[in-house]
User: Fold these one by one.
Assistant:
Number 1:
Amino acid sequence: MTNVGASAGRVGGLDRVTGRQRYMADIRLEDALHVKLVTLPCARARIVGVDTSRAWQVPGVRAVFTAADLPDPMPRYGVHYDDRPVLAVGETKFHGEPVAAVAADTLDAAQKAAALVGVDYEELPAVLDVRTALDPAAPLVVDPELRPDDPLAHTNVRREFRYTWGDPDSAAADLVIENTYTFPMVTHFAIEPHAFAVAVDETGVTVWSAIQHPYILQRVMARVLGLPWSKVRVIAPDPGGAFGGKGYPKFEPLLAYMAMATGRPCRLVLTLEETFQAVRRNNAEVRIRTGFAADGSLRFQDIEADFLMGAYVDISARVISKSSHLAAGPYRTPHARILARAIHSHTPPSTAMRGFGTPQFTWALEQQMDEAARRLGIDRLEIRLRNLARKGEEVVPGDTPADGDWVESVQKAAAAIGWGEPLPEGRGRGLAVGIKSSATAGAAYSILRFLYDGSVFVLVGTSDMGQGARTILTQIVADELGVPPESVNVVMGDTAAAPFDYSTSASRSTVFMGGSVLRGCADLKDQVRRIGARLQGCEPDQIEIERGIVRFPGGEERSIVEVVQEGLGPVGGELIAVGTMRGEADPTHPIGGRPWFYEFNCTAVELEVDRKTGEVLIHKHVTVADVGKAINPLQVESQDEGAAVMGLGHTLMEHLVLDEHGRIVNLGALDYRIPTTKDVPLQLESIIVENGDGPGPYGAKGVGEGGLLCVAAAVASAVNEATGAVVRDLPLTPERIWRAMREVTPSGASPR
Amino acid sequence: MSPQRRAVSLVVNGQRHALEVVVHHTLLDVLRNDLDLTGTKECCAEGECGACTVWMDGVAVNSCLVLAVEADGRQITTIEGLSREGSLSPVQQAFLEEGAVQCGFCIPGMVMSAAYLLQNNPAPSEEEIREGLSGNLCRCAGYKRIIAAVQRAAEEGRR
Ligand code: FES
Ligand code: FES
């Protein structure tokens, strides 16, 4: 029996098809109050006064909170910057930021009372786009007093990240291409809206949150509330999809204060509309000047990117610093200069989202490659193959070198899409590549409890949000200890039960937590060897253990559980092993450490454009991932399919639209469209490249984000082949394509 | 002034419930909050995502769009009622076998829509499956395995 490498069924699948899986909003807390937020119909306003008297008259109301009910100065929190107030104080910074909150016995009462909170406010001019934000006359989103010792405090720029190598100014090039590309504001749209609850008692504060990183929430809550970490217990039910949007604290601190004030647990389930207002992806403008030699080889990249991160930093500074470091992509780039700005605006805060800043750069970079190919008369596939870093070659000097056979992935994608074969009338093919840095540092601890009957508890702090971490960890333990997968119980989502895990981000779980669990298994086997040696009077290293069979020097074979039971004797007990996997931070490295691995993807599409409407029909979409080793091929393929379709969302239809008050116009599922069964490619193929060259268990790398990175560029490339149209702004709506088609010059060259 | 209530009688998964419901509460509210049948999920609350799909008198509906009082006297089937005594319906079985489940949040609604589709059209074409499930959003998957699961369940049903 081997589990690793097989497409084992999803652990938790049965509960999910029967409706028994309890997500955050399904959990009942005795006596809990329902919370409703009070917001204003504009992004930025001065709060003149808040009248709570009418709200208090609603029967069942237990608390009406405003800034005045919170400590002074207003407590602020965040993952890297303590910049977010528990409630808006003085001024709102984005549409959806709460100025008050009501807690009541029923949701009806809370909603009714929230509508009766009278806020006297004065709308103020808001900063909603990059250009306004950078205007020296623009209002400052963040009060400079909150940014002491920050030379940029009197601007809307929070951070600037600069990376340079070689000598981009004197690099000679035969062709220089300069363009600006925009990537829209999009949102995660996990089908499960955000939900939270907090209860306070003698043991401390218990927080329930559908969160990816329970330990970060624990730390932030402890800090804002002034509690030791041991008094903050975070219970994190499996999120119903997250994609980066459920990474960091949102309204948990507010609920804690309300729970303390009322003495009752407080719960808040956001509507989908409120979820849209909570977090989103960074929109970006990327200006890029690329130099090529006549043979298509890259000479230099000069990249300047503005990321509009919204009112609070959340994790965006990291999104931007990390993605911009790899902005030149998976190519050999002899000279480069990169500047990326993290800019504040009066818009909902941006956070991590699948791809972590990379899709914004990939959109620009890959279109530059296409334009160079067109202008130099080189095949689009060929120009990529010429420039791709080969295994072991550097992409960014001093950083992790290319860790896979990327050419192999590209060739597989090209073959699968039929690159170079005759095209049916009206169709085009496109191909693009993308690369994302993985985790640069982290720590993942696991506890394995080998119970007397041979079953195993695995306690880990990773969250299973659909990527299937439970399944992967079960497969590893079942193989390593030779126990049936059904007797492995992976316990997650409780900081009081499971040891520390840095986060469930950057596709790290298989590599970090998988590695941790693998080490825990090794520790367990050592313990069994020591027991066996004691029982048999031999040395531990004379004993071999393979797939649950203990082999003694004389050739005798016994199962692990027999040895453990005899060793523990009639009193019983259990073996407890700890797995530790750490990647230390490197303060001398520009992004705090070298990435453990890269997620490399090549996407190829064949599509048809309706010349009358500009509508795109994707006939075939191929996504190829270099994964090192697929511990569960089905899970790898299906995650990449999901990433591909999410990528098609921002490529073809998704875009949060703001009105002049900074309100999201298309707030909710009716107006913000994501792909349905009718929008997905007629054929979707996910291909895995496995060369066992990753740092994780059995040579695995992380997966699940790659499939999204270069979708937009691949589609744009195919649209160009089909129609000649060049579009540099996403999404590629029918209207944009239609307009671009009309601008095509007779020679087929793109308009400048 | 407490919210206005009305007596309704619902037969949910074969079991009769006499309830006093708040008049503006939806069937979804009542299933989840009054009856603790939380298998049916809420996402958009405006009839666009399908996470709340149940059957009313055998017809698939978005329970967030049905007022509980409108469901008075009706037969309701939820995801909890689709598998009986521990045995999965063919659609549920096929979703597991095809690996169609990721985070799972959309799955109860997806399963209810798929089972409804197969009841009315035991041998749907791929096109008909795409059409039949187009009101059910999934953000995790590429829908491919979901469509394959419905095809598999249809084949099982024809055996
Ligand atoms: S919750 Fe009913 S359709 Fe979305
Ligand atoms: S499985 Fe996550 S939304 Fe469908």
Note: Chain B has a mean pLDDT of 96.
Number 2:
Amino acid sequence: MKRLGKHAIFYAALLGSWSLLAALKIWPPYLFPTPKGVMEALYAGFQDHSFWIAIVVSMRRVVIGYAISVVAGTVLGLGVASNEFLEETMGGLLVSLQSLPSICWWPLALLWFGLNQNAILFVVFMGSLLSVTMAMEDGRKQMPKIYAMAGRNLGAHGFRLFWYVLLPASLPFIVSGLKQGWAFAWRSLITAEMLYMSLGLGQVLMMGRELNDMSQVIAVMILIIAIGYVVDGLVFKTIERRLQHQWGLTSAT
Amino acid sequence: MTPNVVPQPSFPDQRSLDHRSPARSGATRPKAILSPIRQRDVNGTPKVWLKNISLSYRVDNGTRLLALDNINLKVKPGEFLCIVGPSGCGKSTLLHLIAGLHQPSSGSLLVDDHKVGAPGTDRILIFQELGLFPWLKVGENVEFGMKMKGLSKAEREERVQYYLRLVHLSQFKDSYTHQLSGGMRQRVALARALATEPDVLLMDEPFAALDAQTRDLLHDELERIWAETGRTVIFVTHNVREAVRLGDRVAVLTFRPGRLKREYSVDLPRPRHLEDVTVAKSAREILDDLREEINKSLEEQYGLEAAR
Ligand SMILES: Nc1ncnc2c1ncn2[C@@H]1O[C@H](COP(=O)(O)OP(=O)(O)O)[C@@H](O)[C@H]1O
Ligand SMILES: [Mg+2]
């Protein structure tokens, strides 16, 4: 309750100063939109369904791209963690690749996949692949060895050992990496969508720019933040809370 | 030497297991749904046979640490064997090896006269650290081994109930393991191991971290379960008195490298109690034998010359 109060005060102050600045009319409204203008843009966007369509298209893409990267990252991460040669060679490469913004893959993606949705998916995939891979690698190493031994002792081996023991045992150690991967996927998607007109939130944002409608630009930015926040709260916080309940961790990692 | 404790450098002769009487029964003992496995002991084939087993670990700096040195040990079907030794002498290593989780550097492990080198559900180990799965509920933990064995859902349900009742944890079927006390977790591990119905139960210092009351209770439970089901138990401890309390036979391991120092046959009537004078007396004798090894381990750990 106290936290809620603090939040209310903070956001009221933020909104208040924004309204005040806009009311002073230092800058023209097309450069510095009012909160009211943004609200209207949001309302209009949902009213004519263009925001709904953009959200559905973007979510579909990010879910597909992220899902592929989770599967590939799991295989890659576990491979790196369990093979000394791969760990020494590819491990270093993965770390250095992290400094590369995933949008740098865009030109190659265009060349390989053509100017279509697959190019966007590829950028999303590359955006989260590294985080997921490194999370898996870390998780596999941090996971106490006792669980694998206990699983083998009780008759699990091969895929069943992986599925019933190694995966759940490493989940607390990989969930933060999975979350980070999600954030990267989401960012990469919006970036790619801004470069290529193909529906989606990124395009709606760029459309606002072309129409010189800064209210729409800010409205879409708010949507992008909100969706990131909701997914984090609904999906990852739920997983973390569940893990906390099962493992009895004092704080989710 | 008292008549109770007989040093046995060689494999003991075929002693009958008739001295074994059921331990004090619990108030509500579940009716057995499973027929106890009466072990084949006709031709004297050992249940577990360690033949010239040595095992060395690769240590970080490239050298090798000899953990087990030429161990020769036969365990009879249905026998309760206790292994004692100072900490670090290779007790856990030995159990892991019998469980098939470690491979010997040389020598061979025979179970029912067959050479084995991999884990098998005929030998279940209760780890020193337990290794319960925190992401599974208590009931699901107990179910795990049976699920891996491919038992039907209905059969698994029935056995989970049976074994949870056996260790008095029926009400905790849907709890997570972190919600239980140490003694309860210990019992979950016991139920999980028993539920897979192994011929050989391997226990690694299972009661070391428990308070005295809980430990006494679990001693009784374990003795009863063993007497009822006729399983072979190999029980590792650093507590000699506990070994005498439980075992038909006590084997003493030396410290670094782990060798079999001596074996004692414990011919005290059951049920026994930890406080029994006879138990204490026998334990003291074994402890005298063990002291030298304990001192070696203390010196290693703390550099105590005073330990001498
Ligand atoms: N995985 C391992 N790698 C290297 N050395 C080990 C490993 N496990 C145990 N050791 C060493 O082997 C010796 C025996 O260990 P252990 O079997 O755990 O002894 P105990 O159970 O009797 O305390 C110890 O000196 C220990 O440090
Ligand atoms: Mg040990």
Note: Chain A has a mean pLDDT of 88.
Number 3:
Amino acid sequence: MAIVRKVKTVFSKSLDDFFYGIAELAQFSVNVFKEGLRPPYEFKEVLNQCYEIGIKSFALVGVTAFILGLVLVMQSRPTMIQFGAGSYLPAMSSISIVREIGPLVTALICAGKVGSGISAELGSMKVTEQIDAMEVSGTNPFKYLVATRILATTLMIPILTIYADFISLIGAFVGSNIKDNINIYFYFNRVFEALHYTDVVPSFIKTFFFGFTIGLVGCTKGYNSKKGTEGVGKAANISVVMAMVGVIIIDMVVTQITSMLGYL
Amino acid sequence: MINATLDMVNESTTIASQPAIEIQHLKKAFGSNVVLRDFSLTVQNGENVVVMGKSGIGKTILIKCIIGLIKPDGGTLHVLEQDISKLDHRKLDELRMRIGFVFQSSALYDSMTVRQNLEFPLRHDRHRRITGNIEDHIREALRNVGLEHAINLMPSELSGGMRKRIGIARALILNPEIVLYDEPTTGLDPITSEEITQLILGLQKKYKTTSIIITHDIDLAREAANRIVFLMDGIAYAQGTYDELIHNTDPEITHFFKR
Ligand SMILES: Nc1ncnc2c1ncn2[C@@H]1O[C@H](COP(=O)(O)OP(=O)(O)O)[C@@H](O)[C@H]1O
Ligand SMILES: [Mg+2]
């Protein structure tokens, strides 16, 4: 009985936290649009953040994407050959990489790397009064710090995803070539043959939502972090968890919608 | 000759004009924690007021209200003849350019060099408060605080006293009419504190700023204050010149002047 009550309270508390978190994000994004859309725009800072967020993630995303492409092929190859479908290996890997593995892995890695970085940075700026200092010198921190970062993640996650798709396909090619000997032109021919625009377009569109979510969550948690270094650590931690869950929920919703529209 | 006449004109307009800061019945509470209950204070143009009071009593909240970082719950607040609560974003930003704020933690931008820290407030100088070469202006600001050689360093490479100096240089970069100092000498060794005190005095004389200085530092208060205000229980509990207050017998006040 006591356990039931305990579970109940824990559950209702985390439900409260969940709705509070959603409300916080919604209110924050309203502010971002309100402030961010008002000129003057901070183009230079957007470019700077694209560099910080995008270019500095290329190595990590590339290595992971390559390995996942390689492993995907090495693990599915025996089964597919068993069913006499060995020749479908390029098609299978291209569809699973472009539809799911590329976007999701890029978003999850960036939720960890970029999301925590943003919220730790904004959090420490908040607790050391740097955000206040910006405000008193006539710079709107929502515009300068937050809108620029969210725009940068929204633009860079799709670009990183395209890059991850390519690297991952190369990984898959290398994986196929360990046992078979496939010509690279032939391989990529099969890859692109298998891809329909209904595979490419929805999965490309969802990466913008992934990027927006990662930026929004990181900024909200950092900007609203509690005083003290402990608050900053907590904010970074929560923002990673929330961004990852958010990405997965969006992925699920997008898959549902595209299948309802008959694209799957 | 011309300068002298100009000075006289300036003097007379200063005397005739409104106070620089006029705070009436200011209220601010965080939940049940009433920080400012009924705080009133008038600071004349060119006056230097020191605010003293226990830690956590609401001194920082007070000056953050003055610059519009915190919205008060009640009362009125006029700064340079403008009602803070009635200003839109743009007007508030313009007013803020005329006020310098020295943060207790210095609040230097970690990701920027000293030069970029000083350049930052100049980004929105639409009304051209600063004319002429920006580079020269930045170098002069650094020379004023004796740190010209630090121009390319990062904040993490500076000592506490140096950070304070850069914080002061940044607050003064737009030649503000009012400067708000939040505990400029707290946490520094006695020698560095004395240096910062002399720096503040020198800058007050050079730029003829109006200022509010929050401090526990008796030396700074004695040297810089035209008037000292004690903040307690959310009101201006007592005020007067340094000499008046050291002879005050209220135990709450004598406390502060004990060494
Ligand atoms: N953002 C905030 N939320 C809730 N309470 C706050 C906040 N900022 C300050 N306070 C409270 O207001 C009081 C006054 O703070 P402050 O002005 O920083 O004190 P000090 O006089 O030391 O500068 C403190 O009790 C502090 O806990
Ligand atoms: Mg304080």
Note: The longest strand of chain B covers residues 33-43.
